[in-house]
Amino acid sequence: MLYKPKLSRKEIEENHRIFEERVNIYKKRGMDFLKIRNFIIEKSMPLEGNILEIGTGTGHTALTLAKAGYKLTSIDRDKEVLKKAALNLAYEDLLPKVTLHVMDAKSLEFKNGSFNNVIAVNMFHHVNDIGDILDEMDRVAAPNGKIIVSDFTEKGMRVVDQVHNHEGNSHDYSRVAEEEVSKRLKELNYDTIQYEGDAQWLITAKKAVK
Q1: How many other CB atoms sit within 10 Å of the CB of residue 139?
Q2: pLDDT of the chain, 210 residues: tens digit per residue
Q3: Which CATH superfamily is domain 9-103+118-207 in?
């Protein structure tokens, strides 16, 4: 379902204040979200053709891609976080560059081979079974397409836990590992390259030519 929220200027400004505060909290603990997203994009180049993001979240990756001049489609099943992403994009006047959908990653409503690039950042630690999602990412990826997956390292997750604990919350996550993702992508006939950052790991995968 296409997501087109009605946003007020007051909502946009207040959300941005909260967003910036949280970004700065993470930065003080050693996790710079902008630096991480730029690292992901740099290592994923070239990003030719259209882009699908799986798991919009509050919009960090969509913002970075849009600021870099890309247009993209982004999906998330949670309307509340989609609204936060829309507010963040609207603050930077970038909302027209991102088409948002309420959608389940395990059942994508797109045709086979619809996207040249399929990207998921910090999404897999929320799921226990990666198989169905990676299968769907593969299905909608074009024949010569690219899949990009990135998530927190153990150090990154410790920082996330610290921030959530400081805020009086908990952050439930699965133990999906980088090697598990890489193995499945290889089974799907992708050539993979792995990168290890301080707080983030990254896999770029290109469909192998038969």
Answers
A1: 15
A2: 999 999 999 999 999 999 999 999 989 988 899 999 999 999 999 999 999 999 999 999 999 999 999 999 999 999 999 999 999 999 999 999 999 999 999 999 999 999 999 999 999 887 878 889 999 999 999 998 999 999 998 888 888 888 877 676 666 666 667 888 999 999 999 999 999 888 899 999 998 766
A3: Vaccinia Virus protein VP39 (3.40.50.150)
> Cα separation of 23 and 3, whole Å?
25
Report the chain's C-alpha Rg in angstroms. Answer: 16
Burial readout 172-187 (b: 16 or more C-beta within 10 A, e: otherwise): ebeebebeebbebbee
| pTM score above 0.90 | yes
| β partners of residue 120 | 149
Contacts of 199 (CB under 8 A, 6+ apart): 30, 31, 36, 152, 153, 155, 156, 159
**Strand ranges across the sheet with 190-196:** 98-102, 72-76, 51-54, 115-121, 141-152, 200-207, 190-196
Q: Would you call 53 helix, strand, or coil by DSSP?
A: strand
- End-to-end, the C-alpha distance of the chain in Å comes to 35
Spell out where 159-207 has E strands. 190-196, 200-207
Contact status, residue 144 vs residue 207, Cβ threshold 8 Å:
yes
